[in-house]
Design brief:
Elements lengths: L10 E3 L13 H15 L4 E7 L3 H9 L2 E7 L9 E6 L1
Parallel strand pairs: 1-2
Antiparallel strand pairs: 2-4, 3-4
């Protein structure tokens, strides 16, 4: 969990990553719920996450937990797989 900046950006970022061989066991949900609780305790204006477009499981997980896509972008020149920013609705 990345807390909100002290600047004007009051967005907390929550990321729960689980290796493919450990998925579908509830680990991601446990990590996510813990990080979400910590984020909410900071009273941010928004809570976001980020997923690589090449990770359909991660994208599905985020969407199933109430996140909606707000932006796709390439991090560096020459990258071919976009990152997807999602915000908790």
């Amino acid at each position: 969990m990345r807390p909100p900046n002290t600047d004007n950006d009051a967005t907390a970022t929550v990321i729960a990553r689980v290796l493919p061989q450990h998925r579908r066991r509830g680990l991601g949900t446990q990590l996510y719920e813990r990080a979400l609780g910590q984020a909410r305790a900071l009273d941010p204006q928004a809570i976001e996450t980020v997923v690589l477009a090449s990770n359909p499981d991660g994208l599905r997980f985020a969407e199933q937990h109430g996140f909606v896509e707000i932006e796709r972008y390439l991090l560096r020149k020459g990258d071919t797989v976009p990152w997807i920013d999602l915000r908790l609705s």
